[in-house]
Amino acid sequence: MGSIYKRGDFYWIKYYWLGKSIAGFRKAWVSACIQAGLCEVLKDGRGKAVVVKDKKGIEKVVNVPTKIFHDFRRTAARDMVRSGASERVAMSISGHKTRNVFDRYNIVSDQDLKEAAPKKQAYFEKQDALLERPERGEVIQFRQAQNE
Predict the structure, then answer these.
(1) Is the pLDDT of residue 140 over 80?
(2) For residue 28, what are the contacts with CB-CB under 8 A and spacing of at least 6?
(3) d(C-alpha 52, C-alpha 34), whole Å
(4) What does the pLDDT look like over 58-117, one tens digit per residue?
(5) Contact 74, 96 (CB under 8 A)
(6) Structural element, H or E, at residue 59
(7) Apex CA 61: angle with CA 71 and CA 43, to 5°?
(8) Within a 10 A sphere around the Cβ of 34, how many other Cβ atoms?
(9) What is the pTM of this model?
(10) How far apart are CA 95 and CA 73, in angstroms?
């Protein structure tokens, strides 16, 4: 949960977790990702792990998160649409105010394209079945019709 306060011309949000103030969302996000194992070891230009010393002089390997917060927002938006929720509902839940921004999150994948072809074929077969009636005339080849 957070509280909003104004400093100068800007509004700020101060976050709290278990009654303690969080220094900033980014720092909290990085800590959460590292604790969840969503991180990798930071390496220098030679491919060696970057090591730093903390205040007590203990060396620690630097870990960096492999996920950013908006990765999960994008995943949630895609999952809602693919699960059958309407795009308007998904926009409302994910907090997207404009269609343009939502469309950037709702990315079309190769799997989406592969699934579209059979759906289109099934639609055309259904339409053909609806149009076939016993009273319709017989379809004959054009050359056959010329010879009669």
Answers:
(1) no
(2) 15, 17, 22
(3) 16
(4) 998 888 888 887 788 888 888 888 888 888 898 888 888 888 888 887 777 788 888 888
(5) no
(6) strand 59-61
(7) 65
(8) 14
(9) 0.46
(10) 9
